Amino acid sequence: MLKGKTALVTGSTSGIGLGIAKALAAQGAHVVLNGFGEYQEVMASVRAAGAAHGIEVDYHGADMSKPDEIAAMMAFAAQRFGRVDILVNNAGIQHVASVQDFPPEKWDAILAINLSSAFHTTRLALPAMLEAGWGRIINVASVHGLVASAQKSAYVAAKHGVVGLTKVTALETATTGVTCNAICPGWVLTPLVQKQVDAKAEQQGISVEEATRQLLGEKEPSMQFTTPEELGALAVFFCSPAANNVRGVTWNMDGGWAAQ
Ligand code: NAD
Fold first, then answer.
1. Is there a catalytic annotation at residue 155?
2. Dist. CA 51 → ligand 1 center (Å)
3. Where are the domains of the chain?
């Protein structure tokens, strides 16, 4: 379905971004990966996911908190593949503390990585998408783009911002072949969430299993984690012709979290 298209997925060396990158590769898209840590094995796994289509996979290590590095990554992708057809803004970090104790440098980092990076990639990807008459911008927001939780001021503010950016981008592209939508996951068991489970277990002196059960029980009625594979399938749907007129939506996959 996506043969000949190129997807760039920020923060795709791990978790949800990697799941989405593999799902797009399996549909035939070339992929540009981004994120920290080891990436050779990650590249090989994405290449394997798209092996049936002979896709190409590349990597750029831009730090999403740095606009000049983001610009270098977008230029790299355009030079390597002609243009970015599918942009997935996924890179994100978390920090948990009450507002009065929130370290200002963590606030700045979360706003830069979780929100401003999506503005920079979007503004740089849009001209070529509009010229081509087709494009998909998928912002990985969060259920925290729709509702709040205590201790997560920067994250909730950034994710509400991502939802706002999604809607404005969708409106400005509404008469074109470019769409912009947001995915809002509930709990997904990635390294980002495992850290929160481990902290809960340590603070309360309980097992990791009990901390996991409590974490889900507090927010997610299904008592199940959403998986990167399920989120990848939703991203593929947004790229399909059936989603040509899906614009500016915030689609939660949250086990009923936001329905409460
Ligand atoms: P993760 O920690 O597994 O992956 C985060 C990715 O972002 C990694 O590839 C990491 O290297 C990259 N990254 C972090 N800082 C970066 C930076 N400055 N520059 C470039 N890359 C950077 O986390 P995840 O759970 O897969 O989260 C991915 C996205 O999904 C985030 O935006 C997160 O807010 C969102 N999300 C996660 C959950 C969840 O429950 N895990 C729920 C809702 C939304």
1. yes
2. 25
3. 6-186+227-259, 189-225
